[in-house]
Structure formats: structure tokens, C-alpha cells
Design goal:
Elements: H1 7-17, H2 19-51, H3 58-102, H4 106-111, H5 114-156, H6 158-205, H7 207-212, H8 216-263, H9 268-274, H10 278-319, E1 339-349, E2 352-362, E3 367-371, H11 378-385, E4 393-398, E5 401-402, H12 408-414, E6 415-418, H13 429-434, H14 442-452, H15 455-459, H16 476-488, E7 494-498, H17 506-519, E8 524-528, H18 530-536, E9 539-542
Parallel strand pairs: 3-8, 3-9, 6-7, 7-8
Antiparallel strand pairs: 1-2, 1-4, 4-5
Helix pairs in contact: 1-3, 2-3, 2-5, 2-10, 3-5, 5-6, 5-10, 6-8, 6-10, 8-9, 8-10, 14-16, 16-17, 17-18
């Protein structure tokens, strides 16, 4: 049994696949941390040397500026390479999701909203990218930088290290509180903006009803309330932005002042903790400014990791979906009825059965129209015949073979399926017919177009079949003819027609019906169209009359 992939396994696979990039990330991150710690130590030696009137080597000045430049370059390089690394992870995730989607059964797409699937590919994968570009790696780097600074400070000024150990947890709690409050205000603002944005088209769409009911003042009040909610949320965000930085600066200044006051004390005991040289004091100021900024960054990075955790959970759920079984046996046509249903029952959920104990057979070459009320399960029946859905009870066979066990590669030469509306694919007019199937020959394409009468229309287009498809190229009726050509291009034995004349005018409907009658010759046809039944005859089967 094939083992489902997980986000963790995909990340490991991507890391191994891009091992050189991974090593480069590690080296640059470590280099950025180390080089950010060196300049204050060099500056300390320079200041101490100048204050004692000792000779200071020009190499120290050169080294100081060189390490500053190198630190800046590595910091920029870290941001750039993390973006590249995150993109590689994103590519691996989306490729795996795309591959998974190709193997999911059709009922998954029936049960799942399209928006939910799209969100897995876009928003959830983006959170994983942020996990690497702005999350776990940056958080690791910031934590290492803070620990390294603490070690240096403890060696240079034990008293300052003790003061910071007392102050920094309070600063971290304050930072986290501000971030949560700011995030809450931003979410409130998004809701308010969404309400404002939806109010305008809603008002325009219902403007006549609003005027008729004299509800203009009511709509204006609703709009004003949404605007007020947005303003309040923005003001709250601005307030926290305004108070956070001054609070951190004041704390920074207070700690620095306290250390300088204590270092000037005449007490030997105090000086044993806070005593320092002029060079050390300059280095300490640099390190204090460096140690406060990672706290805010770590708070945001924790938030990013939490968001990514939710995204990872949803992606793992998607990757863990059961896949459809791909049959191994090739289809062999037998001398039995073309379509046979035996006591078939099907329901999308247990409380709402669609088909119950349905049985009938369709002989090869027979034309059958499926009739029934709206919601009786006519289109669902087509999906069952195509093997896209599996019946809950009973069996469906196509020329003696279980419909669910027919390989995808055999289905196109066996079935031709025409839906109510034409569904284009990306590409040229030729791609609309072949569905990017390289095995379809030019002769098959031209034969199908000639059968439906579109050969001259497409020949009149400058680039012909190689013209990029657009909605404006064909009328509604021509799109349906294109759909019919697509369905018969591999000369299938069975045609399934799903109310294809439902959205056509009378003249276009006549053209399409004449074409359908022509392409239905010498084929088994199952349709959901009273108009085709009236025009071409055949047998009618009524479904949906069973008692629930």
C-alpha cells in the first residue's frame, strides 16, 4: 500500500534535493550571527587603547569597518537566501499537492468546496514559505544571537547580565501582549473593510428594492457602522504602534543609565559586578541595542510558526486523503449489454439517498433517454456510469466490465461525454479537442470537426487550430459543437449527453440536435434531453420514482 506523504517528509526530501542550498543557508546564518557580535569587541579594544594613550594598530580600524560591512552583507544575504530556500519548499509542497489531487476520487471534489482546495494550494503553502523566510530559521538565529550576547555581557559586566535577566522577560511579555492586541485589531479591521467592500456592490445590486422600500437611510447607517468599526480598529493598531517603540527605548535607556550609575559607584562590591573600562561601556551600549530588537522579532516569528502549524495540519489532512484505485487490467469488450445496472443505490450522505435499487440494461447501439424530476440523480447516474463515483450498493458494468475498474486510458475511446456547458482548458483550439492528449492524430481532429460542421469555421481563423482559445472566438452553439467534437474524437462506443441544449436558443438548438442525431448513428447513446428524444426517438427510462 502506498504511503501518504506528509509535510515533514516533503521538507526532508526538498532539503536532500537542495543540499548545497541548505548548507549555504546554514553557513550564511551562522556567519551573520558571528559577524554581528565582533564589531563591538573590536571597538572596545580601540577605545581602551585610545583612552590609555596606547598605540592602536591601524588594522583594528580596518577590521572594525570590514566586519561591519561583512555583517551587513551577510544579513542581506540571509534574507535573500531564505527567500530562495522558502520558494524551494513552496515548490515541493505545491508539486506534491498537485500530484495528490490527480489521484483523488471524484467524490472528494463533490464533498469539498473548491475554495477549500484553493486555500490549501495558496494560503496554507504560503504559511510554510513564511515558516522558513520569517519563522523558524530567523527565530533560531535571533535566539542564538541573544544567547551569545548574554554570554559576552556576563563576561564583560556580570551586573548588567543580571539586570537584563530580570528586565527582558517583562519586555517579552509586554511585546507579546502588544502583538496579540495589534493582531486582534488588524483582524477586526479586515472584517470591517470586507463589510464596507461588500456593502457597495450589494447596494448597487439591490438599488431598486432599496428605493422601493425607502431603505436608503438604513443602508447608509449600515455603511457608516462598518466605516466606524474600521476606523476604531485602525486607531487601536496605531495606538499600539505608537506606544511600543517609546516603551522599548525608555527601557533601553533606563537599563543603560542604571548600569552607568552603578559603575560609577565607589563600592568595591558593586564595582565587582558593574565596573568596566571606557571601551567596555561602548561595547555594552552596542550589545544592549542589539539584544532588544530580537525580542520583537521572536514574538512575530512565534506567531508565524503558529500560523504555519495550522497550515501544516490542513496540508497533511489533504495529503492523507484516500486515493482512487487505478485498475491494472486493460478493458476487453464483451458481447453483453453496453450498460448494465443491477440494484444500484447511491447517496452523497446517508440521510439523503439519490438513487435507490435502480436496475436496467442498455443494449449496444440503443438510444436511451433518462427522465426524472430535478434532483432525481440523472447527472449523478452519468458519473456512476463513467466510474467516477462508486455505488453504495449494487453494480454497474460496461460491456461486462465493472465501470469503476476501467482504466483512464481506455475511457476516452469507450465514452464520449458532453456536458450542459462547454468547459475550456488552457491552450489552443486544438488543445480544446485533444485535451493535451498527444495520441490524438490530426486526421482524428479534422474528422471530428467535419462531423460537427466546424471545419470551415476554424479554417477561416488565421492560425486555425493553433489559435489560442478565448471565449470570444465562438458562439454558445459553436462551443457546444466543439464539445461534441471533443467527445467523439476517439470514436467512442457510448455517448453520454447531459442536457446539452438547455441553454441554447431555438435556432442553435436545432443545429446542435441535427449534429447529435448524426454523431449518434451506430453508437450507444444515453441522454438527459427530452428534445433529443423527441427529435431522434429511442427508449425512455424514468428514475427517481423509488420511495425513500
Amino acid at each position: 500500500m502506498k504511503k501518504n506523504k506528509t509535510v515533514a517528509s516533503l521538507i526532508r526530501q526538498a532539503i536532500v534535493q537542495h543540499i548545497l542550498l541548505t548548507i549555504a543557508v546554514c553557513l550564511i546564518v551562522v556567519g551573520a550571527i558571528v559577524t554581528s557580535l565582533i564589531p563591538p569587541l573590536i571597538l572596545q579594544r580601540i577605545i581602551d587603547g585610545l583612552s590609555t594613550r596606547a598605540s592602536v594598530s591601524p588594522m583594528l580600524f580596518t577590521s572594525y569597518f570590514a566586519t561591519l560591512i561583512l555583517s551587513s552583507l551577510l544579513a542581506s544575504g540571509q534574507e535573500a537566501i531564505l527567500v530562495v530556500f522558502g520558494q524551494k519548499m513552496t515548490h515541493a509542497m505545491r508539486s506534491a499537492l498537485s500530484e495528490k489531487m490527480e489521484h483523488l476520487p471524484a467524490d472528494f471534489f463533490t464533498r469539498t468546496q473548491p475554495g477549500a482546495i484553493v486555500s490549501r494550494f495558496i494560503y496554507d503553502v504560503d504559511t510554510i514559505e513564511e515558516l522558513f523566510t520569517e519563522g523558524i530559521i530567523s527565530m533560531f538565529a535571533d535566539c542564538c544571537r541573544m544567547v551569545s550576547i548574554f554570554v559576552i555581557l556576563f563576561m564583560k559586566n556580570k551586573g548588567l547580565a543580571i539586570v537584563l535577566l530580570c528586565v527582558l522577560p517583562l519586555v517579552a511579555l509586554y511585546t507579546r501582549h502588544v502583538q496579540k492586541a495589534t493582531l486582534e485589531a488588524q483582524l477586526d479591521n479586515r472584517k470591517a473593510v470586507a463589510s464596507v467592500s461588500s456593502a457597495i456592490p450589494e447596494t448597487l445590486h439591490n438599488i431598486r428594492t432599496i428605493h422601493t422600500l425607502q431603505a436608503e437611510s438604513f443602508m447608509a447607517e449600515r455603511y457608516d457602522e462598518s466605516l466606524d468599526d474600521s476606523f476604531r480598529a485602525i486607531e487601536k493598531t496605531n495606538f499600539f504602534d505608537a506606544v511600543y517603540s517609546p516603551a522599548i527605548l525608555i527601557t533601553n535607556a533606563a537599563v543603560t543609565t542604571l548600569v552607568y550609575i552603578l559603575s560609577a559607584s565607589g563600592s568595591p562590591i558593586v564595582l565587582s559586578f558593574f565596573g568596566m573600562t571606557p571601551g567596555t561601556s561602548v561595547a555594552i551600549i552596542n550589545y544592549i541595542s542589539q539584544i532588544f530588537s530580537p525580542i520583537e522579532s521572536i514574538g512575530m516569528e512565534i506567531q508565524t510558526v503558529q500560523s504555519a502549524s495550522a497550515g501544516i495540519h490542513r496540508i497533511n489532512e489533504f495529503l492523507g486523503q484516500p486515493e482512487r484505485t487505478i485498475p491494472d487490467l486493460s478493458f476487453t469488450k464483451q458481447e453483453v449489454p453496453a450498460v448494465s445496472l443491477s440494484h444500484v443505490s447511491f447517496a452523497y450522505d446517508a440521510s439523503h439517498p439519490v438513487l435507490q435499487d435502480l436496475s436496467f440494461t442498455i443494449k449496444e447501439g440503443e438510444h436511451v433517454t433518462i427522465a426524472g424530476r430535478t434532483g432525481a440523480g440523472k447527472s449523478t447516474l452519468f458519473k456512476l456510469i463513467l466510474g467516477l463515483y462508486h455505488p453504495d450498493e449494487g453494480s454497474i458494468s460496461i460491456f461486462g466490465c465493472d465501470a469503476a475498474k476501467i482504466k483512464d486510458t481506455d475511457k476516452r475511446s469507450l465514452f464520449g461525454y458532453v456536458e450542459q456547458t462547454f468547459r475550456p482548458v488552457e491552450g489552443t483550439i486544438k488543445d480544446q479537442l485533444t485535451l493535451h492528449d498527444a495520441s490524438v492524430s490530426d486526421d482524428e481532429i479534422m474528422a471530428a470537426l467535419k462531423t460537427v460542421g466546424l471545419d470551415k469555421t476554424i479554417a477561416s481563423i488565421p492560425d486555425g487550430l493553433d489559435t489560442p482559445y478565448s471565449e470570444s472566438l465562438f458562439s454558445q452553439g459553436q462551443k457546444q459543437l466543439l464539445s461534441i467534437a471533443r467527445s467523439i474524437i476517439k470514436n467512442p462506443s457510448i455517448l453520454l449527453l447531459d442536457e446539452i441544449t438547455a441553454n441554447l436558443d431555438a435556432e442553435t438548438e436545432r443545429t446542435v440536435l441535427d449534429t447529435l442525431i448524426q454523431v449518434s448513428k451506430n453508437r450507444t447513446v444515453v441522454s438527459i434531453s427530452h428534445r433529443l428524444y423527441e427529435a431522434g426517438g429511442g427508449r425512455m427510462i424514468t428514475i427517481g420514482t423509488q420511495k425513500a
